[in-house]
Every structure is written in structure tokens, then in C-alpha cells.
Amino acid sequence: METTSRIRDERVIDVREISPRLRHTVIFQLFGHLDETSSLQLIADHDARPLRLQLEARHGERCLWTYLEQGPDVWRVRLHRRHLRCCIRTSCRAV
Question: Residue 65 pairs with which residues in a beta bridge?
């Protein structure tokens, strides 16, 4: 079972300060650079469910999404990237 107890470094990003047209691109890049001991905490003025669906579509089980606060004025979400281990190394694409 995956826990957040191994997270040692968390970057807090207030996405309200990022241009709406750039938000997802910035978050995808930041998420892609996370390791098992780091996370992103996103602060938004709305539920970022579309972003969650996009991250899960791209990263599947590697994307761990935890709501820390759910509105009505502020939403806070913790993103953690789980690095999956594969049984067959030659076909592994999960890292």
C-alpha cells in the first residue's frame, strides 16, 4: 500500500497565479519531474477534476491524487508520482 510517509519534499504551487492557458502544461512538466520522495501541492479556486482526468489518462496508477481541501473558495490537492516496479524488465514502460 502506498503512503505519503515517504514524501520528504513538497512544492506548493498556487495555480491561480499562472496564466490559465499555461496551467496544465506547467503542472504536467512539474509532475513529470517528481520522484518517490517529492510531491506537488496545488492551490486552485475550483475543483481541478479535468486536470486529474488528464493526469490519470497519461500516467495511470502512477498518479496519486489526494484532496486536502475541497472548496467552496479554495481547493488544495496533493500530487504524488508513484514509480511502479515491473516484473518483466524488457517490457517495462512504467518508469
Answer: 79
* pLDDT, greater one: 36 or 75: 75
Q: Which residues contact 46 (CB under 8 A, 6 or more apart)?
A: 71, 75
HEC letters along 8-26: CEEEEEEHHHCCCCCHHHH
Nearest to 1 by CA among 56, 61, 59, 91: 61
User: pTM here?
Assistant: 0.77
Cα separation, 92 vs 55, in Å, equals: 19
CA distances from 40 to 49, 78, 91, 92, 94 (A): 16, 6, 29, 25, 20
Q: Please state, as a whole number, how many other Cβ atoms lie within 10 Å of the Cβ of residue 35.
A: 11
User: CA-to-CA distance for 82 and 53, rounded, in angstroms?
Assistant: 16
